[in-house]
C-alpha cells in the first residue's frame, strides 16, 4: 500500500483501485445494495455486497485470477490445476480461458452435474475423483507434481487472499455513510483474511466479523427461523451410516484452515480493545487480542514468509 495512504487517513477511502487492478480484467466491481426489509427488521442499515453478480456468480474469481495472472509464461504453458466443488472451479476455468492456458479441475464424484458442466463450458477439463473434497485435493496436488502444473488453492495463498481483499477495498469506497462492521461468511478463511487485511488498515474502527452456518434453518411464512440441527442429528442417528446418500459427503469440512490466512489475521494491527477472530487449524473460532504494536501493511503481510 502506498505510504501516503496511512492507517486511518480518510484519503485512503477514496483512492480508487490502487490495491489491485489485475482482478478487474475478468471481475466486476459489484454493487453495494441496501437490504431494505432486513434493515427495517433489525433497526439498522444492512448492505449486501452483490458478488453473486460476478461472471461466475461468486467472489472466487478474484483470488484465482489474481494468482494466475502473476504466473510466468512457462508456468502458463504447462497449465494449472485445482480442486473444488464448484465456485473456485469456475473461477479458475474462466481465468484460464482469459489467460489462454490449460486448466484441469478435480471435483468430487458427488458434485452435481450442473456444476461440473458449467466448468466444462468454460473450457476446463473436469476430472471427477474421490467422495470428498479432501480426496479431490490430494489427487490435484499429486497430478500437479507429476505434470509440473501450478496448483491453484481456493484460499490458502497470499495472492488469492489479496485478490479477495479487493472486496474490502470496494466496500470502503462505496459506503457513503459510517461503516461499523462487515460480516463475512467463513469457509476456508481466505475471504475474511483479505477483507480484514485491507479494511483494518484504512479504517481501524471497522470490525470484521466472521459468520458460519450452524445447522439448517427452516423458514416459515412470517420469516421466523427454526434451528433444525437437533432434529437432523436425531434422524441421522436413527439411520445406518450406509444409508446416507453420497451427496451429503461433499458437505464434509476441510481438515484445517490455511496457514496464510491464519497468519494474516493474527498480524493485523488493531487497538488493544479490539478483538479479532483468529481462524485456527481445528476449524473453530477463538477470540484473540491483537497487540497495537504489531504495525504491518497489507503488502508486507502478503510478502512475509513462514
TrEMBL record:
<dbReference type="InterPro" id="IPR036052">
    <property type="entry name" value="TrpB-like_PALP_sf"/>
</dbReference>
<dbReference type="GO" id="GO:0030170">
    <property type="term" value="F:pyridoxal phosphate binding"/>
</dbReference>
<dbReference type="InterPro" id="IPR000634">
    <property type="entry name" value="Ser/Thr_deHydtase_PyrdxlP-BS"/>
</dbReference>
<dbReference type="GO" id="GO:0006567">
    <property type="term" value="P:L-threonine catabolic process"/>
</dbReference>
<keyword id="KW-1133">Transmembrane helix</keyword>
<dbReference type="InterPro" id="IPR050147">
    <property type="entry name" value="Ser/Thr_Dehydratase"/>
</dbReference>
<keyword id="KW-0472">Membrane</keyword>
<dbReference type="InterPro" id="IPR001926">
    <property type="entry name" value="TrpB-like_PALP"/>
</dbReference>
<keyword id="KW-0812">Transmembrane</keyword>
<feature type="domain" description="Tryptophan synthase beta chain-like PALP">
    <location>
        <begin position="29"/>
        <end position="209"/>
    </location>
</feature>
<keyword id="KW-0663">Pyridoxal phosphate</keyword>
<dbReference type="GO" id="GO:0009097">
    <property type="term" value="P:isoleucine biosynthetic process"/>
</dbReference>
<dbReference type="Pfam" id="PF00291">
    <property type="entry name" value="PALP"/>
</dbReference>
<dbReference type="GO" id="GO:0006565">
    <property type="term" value="P:L-serine catabolic process"/>
</dbReference>
<comment type="similarity">
    <text>Belongs to the serine/threonine dehydratase family.</text>
</comment>
<protein>
    <recommendedName>
        <fullName>Tryptophan synthase beta chain-like PALP domain-containing protein</fullName>
    </recommendedName>
</protein>
<feature type="transmembrane region" description="Helical">
    <location>
        <begin position="179"/>
        <end position="199"/>
    </location>
</feature>
<dbReference type="GO" id="GO:0003941">
    <property type="term" value="F:L-serine ammonia-lyase activity"/>
</dbReference>
<dbReference type="GO" id="GO:0004794">
    <property type="term" value="F:threonine deaminase activity"/>
</dbReference>
<keyword id="KW-0456">Lyase</keyword>
